[in-house]
Structure formats: C-alpha cells, structure tokens
Write a structure and sequence with these properties.
single chain, eight-stranded mixed β-sheet, alpha/beta, Rossmann fold, globular
C-alpha cells in the first residue's frame, strides 16, 4: 500500500481523493490550513499550507506520493504555481507528485486547440491559465522527477457531485465528452482516477483527461 499525502485534502477534489485512497487501504494524510470537523475515518489530518514549503516538507517525510489539490482562486490566485514548483523541487526524487488540474489545459480534439482557447468562460481564465502554468513547469523538470497531471471533465465540481461508478474514460490530452458533447465526472470517480494511477502508473510525466 502507498503512503499518500493530499495537500488541499479538505477541498472538493482533495476530499474525494482522500476517501477513495483510504477505502482501498492506503495510508493517507490530508493537509490543509485547518482541520475539518467532518473527516474521512482512517485518514490523518494535519494543518499545513503549500505556501510554507519548508514546513510542509517536514510533514511529508516517508510518503510515496504527494497530491496537490489546491485551486488557484481567491486568496491563492497567483500563488499556487510558484509554490507547487518550489515544493516539487524540494521533494526527494523518489516521491511522485500528482496534480489536480483543470479542463482548460486539455485539447478539444487530437492535435487541436486547447479548451481554454475555444470559447472558455472569461471569468475562469485566470485560474485555468495558472493551472496550465503548473503543468508547463512540471514539463520542464528533470527526467528524474516523476509526476502526473489530471484534467477533470468540464462539468466537474461540487455543484454536480454525482456518484462513484469506478468507471471512467482516459482521453489522454483530449477533453473527454460523451456522444452528446457533454463533459462530466463525479468527485468520487476523479478520486478513482487518481488512485488508479497511483496503484498502476500509466502516465509517468504526463497529463491526461478523465471523464465519462
């Protein structure tokens, strides 16, 4: 079983990853700026922030995988990209990094334009561009550093939690849509995608999109 730390483990994406990983018997630490009253039984909860990389690294001793599940919005806007780069550089090369990205950096079709360049809502562009920046930084890291970056479907969010099916499609770099052009994945199935990748790595140093 893997030892997994989820930074932003109390947020929507992070809490679903924590729940899925615990349900499969992994050792899971959730790190966030405050400890929630509602917790996933079996997970360990710690206070910490990605803005304090030195302190965070101390909390990440002996982990196999670190998941960054922080949205670059609100008071974190403009801070997530540099903090993620600093954290990854500080982690031992044996530690794999997984990142919850956004749909904006995936492609609309093989070899096509990015979603963010194809009628993307203006109010979400800054957040999407910062997530894309995190990916671009990862792509420039040394080959000795292992990572994966997941683009959730366009309809992913707490407003549409859905259910756990354990079934989803991997679109590679292309946004996953159904036969009606809709793009969706539930919170728990995003958690499945992350834990599946941890248990059976298929995307070393790659980004990939997931959805139904």
């Amino acid at each position: 079983m893997a030892r997994i730390a989820v930074i932003g483990g109390t947020g929507y994406a992070g809490s679903n990853i924590v729940a899925e990983a615990v349900s499969r018997g992994h050792s899971v630490v959730s790190i966030a700026r405050s400890v929630p009253t509602e917790r996933v039984e079996g997970a360990i909860y710690l206070e910490g922030t990605i803005l304090d990389v030195a302190g965070l690294v101390e909390q990440l001793q002996e982990v196999d995988v670190v998941i960054q599940a922080i949205s670059p919005r609100g008071n974190m806007a403009g801070k997530v990209r540099p903090a993620t780069a600093e954290l990854f550089a500080a982690l031992d090369d044996s530690v794999r990094l997984g990142v919850v990205g956004g749909a904006g950096g995936s492609l609309v079709a093989p070899g096509g334009a990015r979603v963010i360049d194809s009628g993307f809502p203006e109010e979400f562009k800054a957040e999407a561009l910062e997530a894309i920046g995190v990916l671009e930084d990862l792509q420039q890291t040394p080959e000795t550093k292992d990572w994966f970056f997941v683009h959730p479907a366009g309809g992913f969010g707490a407003w549409a939690p859905g259910e756990r099916t354990g079934i989803y499609r991997d679109g590679g770099s292309v946004l996953v849509t159904d036969d009606k052009g809709e793009s969706f994945i539930s919170g728990r199935d995003l958690g499945c995608a992350f834990v599946d990748e941890i248990e059976n790595p298929r995307h070393r140093r790659e980004n990939f999109a997931v959805g139904y």
